[in-house]
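Board notes, transcribed. Complex of a protein with 2'-monophosphoadenosine-5'-diphosphate.
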Amino acid sequence: MIDGHTCLFGIIGNPVTHSLSPAMHNAAFAELGLNGVYVPMQPDNLDHGFQGLKALGFIGVSVTVPFKVKIMAYLDHIDPVAQKIGAVNTLLFDRDIPDLVRCKGYNTDWLGSNQALAEEIRLDRSTVLIIGAGGAARAVGFGLKEAGAKVVLTNRTESKGRELAAQLNCPFAPASELAEIRADALVNTTSVGMTPHDDSIPIRADLLGHFPVVMDIVYAPLETRLLREAAAHGCRTIDGLKMLQYQGAAQFTLWTNRPAPHAAMRAALLRELQAHSS
Ligand code: ATR
C-alpha cells in the first residue's frame, strides 16, 4: 500500500530495466511490513538524477553501472572501504536536519562477497584466487583483504591484472602459471559463462580440484559451466545470486536498521530470475 508516508528507495543506473534489485528489496519491505517502495530509475544525466533524489526525499538508493564511480563526486561522506575500491553502490540520505540533507556512500558488494564466502571458509585463514581485474574484482579483492584473507589474482590481460594485484599488494598469476596455484577458494569475477555464452569457462576445468570452494558472480545461468564442472570435481560451490542477495541485505540493513529477511529476498531473486529467463 503506497500512501503519503511511504519511504522512497530505488536504484539508479543505465540500463536498469532488467535489475533484480526491485523485486528483492520490495519483497523485503513486504516481509517485514515496512511502508517502503523501491523503484528503478534511469537518469540520462547523473547530476539531475542526484539532485532529484535529494529533493524528492529518497532515503536509500542503489547505484549501478555506469554511475558507481561518478557518483562519488556528489557525496558528503564516503566509507573508507568504498574509497579503496573506488566505487560506491549504496547511498544513504541523512535527513535529520531538513534543510541540510547529507548523502553518504558505501560499497556493499564486498560485504556480499565476503558473507557468501564466509559460509564456506574462514576468511582470515584462507587464500583466495580471484579471476578478473575489473570493478567486481576490485570489490571482492579489497573485501577479502579487509577480512584478513590472502589473495592471488589472475586476469586475461596481464597488465591490467598486475596493476590491480599491486594495489591489493598480492601476487599475480599469469595463465601459464595457474596450474601451480592452490587456494582455499576461487572466485570468478568476470562475465565469462554468462548467457548467451553458457559454454564458456574462465579457468581450465582440470584445475578446479585445486580449489575446495568455487564461487561465481555470474547468476544467469544460476548453474554456470564453472559451477557445474567444479561440483563434478568435488568442490563446494557458491552461486552468483548469493553475492547479489547479501550485498542487497547489507543495503537493506543500512537503510532500515533492521536485519534483512534473507529467505524472502532469495525467493524473490529466484522468482525474478526465472521470469527473466522464460
Ligand atoms: P566489471 O566492472 O563488471 O568487473 P569490467 O571492468 O569490464 O567489468 O571487467 C571485466 C573483467 O572480466 C576483466 O578482468 C576482463 O578481462 P580483461 O582485463 O582481459 O578484459 C574479464 N573478462 C571479460 N571477458 C572475458 C573473457 N572472455 N575471457 C577472459 N576474461 C574476460
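Residues 110-238 form a domain with the Rossmann fold fold (CATH 3.40.50.720). The chain is about 35% helix and 20% strand.
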